[in-house]
Amino acid sequence: MTLRRLGTTLGSWAPDRRGPGDPLLAIAANWPEIVGKDVAAHSHPSALENGALIVTTRSGAWSQQLSFLADRILGAVRVRVGAAAPDRVRFRVGKLPARTGPRAQPVPGVAASGVSSRPKTGDAREAIARFRADVEAYQRAKRDAGWKECRRCGALIAPRTQTICVICANARGDDRAGAVARLLFEAPWLGYEGVKARVEGLEPGEYERIRKRLLSRWWETLARAGRNGRIARDGRERLIAGSYVLLKSGVPPDRIAAATVRNLLGDAVYDVIYGMEPNIQ
To answer: Which neighbouring-strand residues pair with 90?
Structure first.
């Protein structure tokens, strides 16, 4: 069996990033505190699409002004929803919903900004200026309360926590999982110790979770080929089958036997993938 680079074979695989609860509801509930009451009166977080927070605004002028503060908005959102936060913001003009729902909860250890006594404004530039000032004051308050900068991205994180923020920790874990997945596909005989020597910070439990997830995903692809009686034109099932058998069995490539392969794959899958004249899709 020939092993090749991962390429597009595992392009659809990614660690599960879903977290508990609905992050959009949390963002909407805290929107007045995230952007300030003035800005919240003219905007609304309406959807999360492919990692982007979609913000509906009252007019094109509001969308344009808020686009200049997208990074600040994302930073304030991350404080509220942590690893579930989006990675970008998009603005579009539309109808704003009625203001209902739970009141925002303060961030522990940081005093409220106290903007409720200020008169409201309908002017976009003035509201944006207020928002910018509020964010800067909020950041200063967090630093005064002992918050520290993430050593990877510089975002402020609460005292007595890790040295990196939740977002960076999650990204680092995703990078590690991707590296492990590539090694298990290209060199499935390495085992935990072999992979650990090449991937810094890998723990046995994490390795086993990734291994089981890959085996399950690979088997779905192989079983589908067996049911359909054909393989894809690029022959990806043959590549996956090679990695699947070696990873599942733990047998070195030079000692694997045809009987072992057939036993692990089953007759239907084996015949479709390794038959003399397989049916190409």
So the answer is: 54
